[in-house]
Amino acid sequence: MRFMKDLSQETLSLLQRIYRESKHYRVRQRAHCLMLSCQGYTAKELQKIFHVNLFTIYHWFDAWELRCFCGLYEKKGRGRKPKLNDTQREQIRQWAKEFPKNLGKIGALIQEEFDIAVSKDTCRVKIFKRPFPQSFTRLLSLPLFRLLMTSPVPILRSHLMTHGEGMPHGLEDDVGLYFRLCR
C-alpha cells in the first residue's frame, strides 16, 4: 500500500485550491486523488472512486513524487499531432499573401507541394490561427518559474528551484489560477 504522506498544510491547501479551480478535469482528479491518499485512502479504494486502473493511481503518485505540482499536468506531446510543420505553415501564409481570398488555390498548392489533402477550413485555420490574444501569448512565453518566483508561497518556490521546469502542458489555461495561488 502506498500513501501520500508528509504533505505540509500549505501543500494540501494548494492541492485543494487546484482541485476546486483548475479548468482541466484530469488535473482536478489527480489533485483530489492526492488529497484523499493523504487522508489514508488506499490505492484500491482510490481506484474504485476514480474508476481508473490501479497502475494509473500509481502513475499519478510517481508523477507527484518526481515533478510535484507540474506532475498534475500532462506533458507535451499528448493528442493528435499537427498535419503541417512550421515551415509548411509559413509557406501557406506566403501563398495566402500571393493569392488572397482564394482558399481553393491554396489547398491545391498544399496538395501538390506537400502531398497532404486539406479542406478549405483547414487552410483558413492555418492562415488565420491565433489561439490567444497577443498580450496573453507574451505572458505564456515567460517560464513558469519567472511567473512564480515572487510567490509568497515557499512550497511553489522550492519546487520550481529543484525541478527547474518550464510551463507544463495544459497550464496555460490555469495561469490565472497560479496567479491567484501566489497572492
Structure description:
This protein is an all-alpha fold. It has 2 domains: 9-72 and 168-181, no CATH class; 79-140, no CATH class. Helix content is 62%, strand content 0%. It has 11 helices and no strands. It has helices spanning 9-21, 25-38, 43-50, 54-67, 86-98, 103-114, 120-128, 134-141, 144-148, 154-163, 175-181. Helix 1 (9-21) runs antiparallel to helix 2 (25-38), helix 3 crosses helix 4 and helix 5 packs antiparallel against helix 6. The model is unreliable at 130-142, 144-152 and 178-183 (pLDDT under 50).
How confident is the prediction overall: mean pLDDT? Answer: 76
Number of domains: 2
Q: Give the radius of gyration.
A: 21 Å
Report how far apart the termini are: 36 Å
Report the structural category: mainly alpha
Strand content: under 5%
Spans of at least 5 consecutive residues whose pLDDT stays below 50 are 130-142, 144-152, 178-183
The helix content, as a percent range, equals 55-70%
Give the number of helices: 11
Number of DSSP-assigned strands: 0
